[in-house]
From TrEMBL:
This is Phosphatidylinositol transfer protein N-terminal domain-containing protein. It comes from Ramazzottius varieornatus. Residues 1-251 form the Phosphatidylinositol transfer protein N-terminal domain. Gene3D superfamilies: 3.30.530.20. It holds the Pfam family IP_trans.
Amino acid sequence: MIIKEYRVVLPMTVEEYQVAQLYAVAQASKNETGGGEGVEILKNEPYDNHQLLEGQPTSGQYTHKVYHIASKIPGWARAIAPKGSLEFHEKAWNAYPYCRTEFSNPDYMKDNFAITLETLHVADRGDSPNVHRLPPEKLKKREVIYIDIANDPVDRKDYKAEWDPTQFQSQKAGRGPLKGNWKATCSPVMTCYKLVTVEFKWFGLQNKVESWAHKAERKLFLNFHRQVFCWMDQWYGLTMADIRRIEDETKRELDSQRHAGHIRNQYGDVDE
């Protein structure tokens, strides 16, 4: 088991990010879907009276998605997996500002593979020592990784100028471009604290798979949040009612798009 906490500082409020994230998830899903692969949304509905974390809301939005992503899995993993087995289920409980997401592969790896992602969104600069209230034994295992959406290097095949926070300036909010030590001075500011636990129980492959999964998560967090910021003029001013409408439209589009066109991969592969 490998536990890492990724901290992503962003120049927006916690309230703005709730809309920004959901908008970006919908857009990114469309950019990853086509040619028989991509995102299938099975459920997207409210839930109530479900305690995820003490002190956080007990109601929110539940989603269940299936990711058909065989071409994005490393070659060494595809070589040992039966055809049709590389479908991953994502179950998420969004009790904003706390969110819990669970990834699994129930048809093939079953209980031998699990990724749990717990996110807290806090109005700070990424300097809170233990927002997840981890006990001492987990704190010893946790590794903290800071992600800088402007200054961290991006793979050349993933780079697009329109997703570069050092080049983008919002016409609606007047924020950006992000230069130098922007995290120390930007206002407003917030941090996504993403606690990721990866567990893989197959002897001989445990370290390889767990390390690959964390490498993939870090790359996803960096590229996704670069988009969140650079799409600001698209989501700025939207309401949650607007977001639910966009999500309904996205589900219909994904159902059609998944069975047509070509395989898409906006973030590139993560192999090793």
